Amino acid sequence: MSLIKSISGIRGTIGGQAGDTLNPLDIVKFTSAYATFIRKSNPQGSGKIVVGRDARISGEMVKNVVCGTLMGMGYDVVNIGLASTPTTELAVTMAGADGGIIITASHNPRHWNALKLLNNKGEFLTAADGGEVLAIAEAEAFEYADVDHLGKYSEESFDERHIDAVMNLKLVDAEAIKKAGFKVAVDSINSVGGLILPALLDRLGVEHTFLNGEVNGDFQHNPEPLEKNLTGIMDTLKKGGYDLGIVVDPDVDRLAFICEDGKMYGEEYTLVSVADYILSEMQKDSNHPALNTVSNLSSTRALRDVTEKYGGTYTAAAVGEVNVTTKMKEVGAVIGGEGNGGVIYPDSHYGRDALVGIALFLSLLAKKGQKVSELRKTYPEYFIAKNRIDLTPETDVDAILASVKAKYEKEPDVTVNDIDGVKLDFPDKWVHLRKSNTEPIIRVYSEAHSMAEADEIGKAIMDIVYAMV
User: Which residue, 56, 107, 243, 287, has most beta carbons within 10 Å?
Assistant: First the structure.
C-alpha cells in the first residue's frame, strides 16, 4: 500500500486501485474534505483557494482533478500553475484566499505525488486541523454546490511577486551580491526551480548555469538533495570556474550548497550559515529583539552553538515543519528551520523557502569575501549518522522508547527530551530515537564531532534497544 494519509495531507504513488494509491477517486475525496473544513473554519472568507504544483509528470492530471473538485465544492480556484511551495504559500495571502493546495511530493521519486494543505495564512495545517480533514474524508461528510453556486476558475502567476518579496527583505544585500560577481551552477532537478531561480539570480546580478534545468518532471537523479545523489553538480564544480553550487528539491523548499572545490557544504549547514548572518546583522541594532532560533530535534547542534555565540537562546521542536513554525512563534525566533536545508525566516513568511535562503546566503558570502569552503570552516564541525531499527508490527515501540527514557533520565550528564520520541543529549553528542509514522521501525539519528563517534554512540543505543525486544 502506497497511499499515506497524514495530518499534513495525502501522498502516494500514481496508478493502481482506489484506496491503495494516489488516484482520482481519493484525490476527489480528500480535496472535498479539505474544502469542507476550510468552509467550516472560515465561513465568511473570500471563497477562493490557491492551487500550485511542481513539475511532476502526474501534476497536470492531479491539478485538473483538484481544481474541478474545488469548483464543485463552490470555491473559486486561483491556479498559479507551475510554482514552488513557498510561492504557493505566499500566493495564499497575496490573493486573499481562504487556503491553498500544493501538489507536490517534495523530494520523493517521480512516480509519487501529494496534496499539501494550507490555511488562510499560507501555512500548513496544525495537527488538530489536519486530523479533522482526515475525519471528514473518512466519513465522506461533504456536500457539493448546486449549478448556480459552482466556483469559478482563473490563472495567475505569483513568481515575480515572490521574487520582489525576497528582494525587499532588509537583510538581502543585492548591491553587495552584484558587486561580488558570483558565478554559480544550479541543479534544479527538472522541476519548478528551473523557472523561478534563473529570474531570482538575474535580479541579484549572479551569473548562472543550470543542470537538469528542463522543467519536465522527468527527474534525472533521485530528487532528494543528498550527497549520494549530487555527483553531477559536484563534478561540475570540481572542474573549476564556479564560486558556488546550488541544489534544490522539486518544490524548492529545501536548499543545499556545493563548495567551489566540488565538496558538499553540508545540508545541515544551510540553516546554520543563514542564522549566523541574520544574528550577526541583528546584533548590530541596539534595539534588536531576542536573538532566538529554533530547529527540530534531529538537526545539528551547530545552530545552538552559533545562537549562543550571539547571546541568543536555541529551542528544539518536534520534527515537522508545522511543529517548527509553532515553536518559532511561541519563543519569538528570528530565524529557524530544519537541518534538511529548510530555512524559515519570519520576516518573509513562516515556511521553508529556498529563494530566501539563497539570497541571504549570497549576502553573507558577499560580505565575508571568503570562498565557500573557507566560510564552511568557520562553523563548528559535527557529523550526523542515520540508522534504523527494524521491528515487527507487533512490537510496542512506545514501551521501548519509554524504557530508554527511564534508563537515561537520571543520568547526571544526560538531558532527555521526549517531545518527539526520545532524544538523549550528552555533553559532546546526542542520539535521537523516533518512531516512524509509516512503518514498524525506529529511526536513530546521532551526532558527534566525527562520523565514527556519531555512528558509535548511535549503535550503542541501538544495542540497548535490541536487548529490550
Answer: 56
Phi, psi of 139 (to 5 degrees): -85, -10
**For strand 255-258 and strand 244-248, is the pairing parallel, antiparallel, or unpaired?**
antiparallel
Spatial strand order of the sheet with 293-296 comes to 314-317, 293-296, 335-338, 342-344
CA geometry: angle 336, 338, 341, nearest 5 deg? 110
Q: What is the pTM of this model?
A: 0.95
Question: What type of residue is 14?
Answer: I
| Confidence category of residue 7, pLDDT binned at 50, 70, 90 | low
* Whether residue 9 has pLDDT greater than 50: yes
Residue 402, pLDDT above cutoff 70: yes
Q: Is the pLDDT of residue 179 over 90?
A: yes
450 assigned to active site = no
- C-alpha torsion 341→346→351→357, nearest 10: -30
